[in-house]
Amino acid sequence: MKKVAVVGIGHGKFGVRSDASLRELAFEAVKACLDDAGIPLKEVESMVTGVAGDEFALALQPSAQVHDYIGFHPKPNFRVEGACATGSMALRTGIMNVASGFADVVLVVGVEKMTEVPTSIATEIMGKAGDSIWEYPFGTTFPGYYAMIANAHMAKYGTTEEQLAMVSVKNHYYGSLNPYAQMQKAIDLQKALTSFTIAYPLKLYDCSLITDGAAAVIIASEERAKAISKKPVWIVGSGLATDTLRLADRESLTSILASREAAKTAYKMAGVGPADIDVATVHDCFTIAEIVAYEDLGFCEKGEGGKLIEAKETYVGGRIPVNVDGGLKSKGHPIGATGVSMAIEITKQLRGEADQRQVKNAEIGLAHNVGGTGQVVAVHIFRRE
Amino acid sequence: MSGERDRWWPFTSSGGSRMEFKNFSLNISQTKVNRFVDELAAGRFMATVCKKCGKQYYPPLADCSNCMQSDMEWKQISNEGTLVTFTKIHVPPDHFAVRQPLMPFSSIQFEPCPFGLLQVEAGLKIMGWIPKVDVKKIKVGMRMKASAQILADGKITIVLEPI
Fold it and tell me: ipTM value of the model?
């Protein structure tokens, strides 16, 4: 594959953004991204927009709202959707654009405005990211699916509710240090453990948030990257994989096949293994999802994810710092923007710009983004020069 | 109720988004496997089996992705097996949400029902409500059986009970 690098990053404030429309949220991120790259929009040749829900946007073609509002026409814009992995799929589509030679400089925007519909409708839209025919009639919700994964994991490996809560405590701690996070508030174990049940055994503090927000990156070919940026961050691995629509059809309920497959592809392409990763963002839509991700990405043995967080190995200073931007749990999870936001955090870490959250001398980073309950998973590996 | 929903929800006109189907609480208004409902009403859990490769599908599918062909036959499967996982959803999606009562000073007590996945054969899992066991007493690995149950509104659903 031709070399591709991230040369610009722009992150909007995540939260309940009743002050801004979807297109205005996207503008914030695009503007910040162009400023970071130090190029005008006219130097961008093509664009990919990740926005997951027409149901959230209450309109078809929300991506057209975005390209119109930033004044991108008549250049090409390509919309991508893959539930919660939408942002990483947009990134991968952008990479394909550059690697194929279709364009040398590509803007990747991820955006979602989820709070314009009431919570019960948002819960329904997300619940139907599973099988809307055969699962949803039992009242399935997203927390419900991951609660089933949690119960299976706890029964098989002895993972505890305390270990789940420890993931939440870590991610809230780092969210408190991230100015773009929705919840900038550290919590203690007791608060997580005594919060009310959303879907047994997952409690309020085991669940990520319903969020509005946008994130954007500019990626470029080798020649253009070197001309644009002093600190290009190279995308050296990209893996995408899929799994069954229904949880019931999976051989394992304690692991996500698509995560393992996407990781295998990305590691191979990058020529690195799990032990080489200095910092990672993983898909912690629920605390159990982060523990399963540790295992599926090879950061620990299968079934040992609970012990990894208990030993604080995923904090800065630990063996493999994970979600030190607050993760979906505390930073927020605007589903179309999440994957792009992950790429931004890794880029910041590899540039050495993560302030109090900086992992010292980070050279190789990984971003892992799950769509639905693993129907689609993207893994990207980044490396600085 | 529906007024509020319609205001927020423009995507209701076709099958799939509302629960309007053939006498059944599953969302299958328009499908080639409607026979499943009639069989379930008669107490039988039916899978489809590919006549070419023998692969079994539950829920029943009209087409075999293993062979890319559609010559399937129906087969009754066991309704007894082992619980592989479960949950109980306290914050429900819109279809299942409890509305505010219209009567002043009144309240609604909402006690949701757990549900789970029962493995009855290798690769075949039946999803069903678990109405008779406290969620804290439900254990992965419990032996259970699935049966059809007619709800108050006349629709049919699936329940799991310990055996």
Answer: 0.90
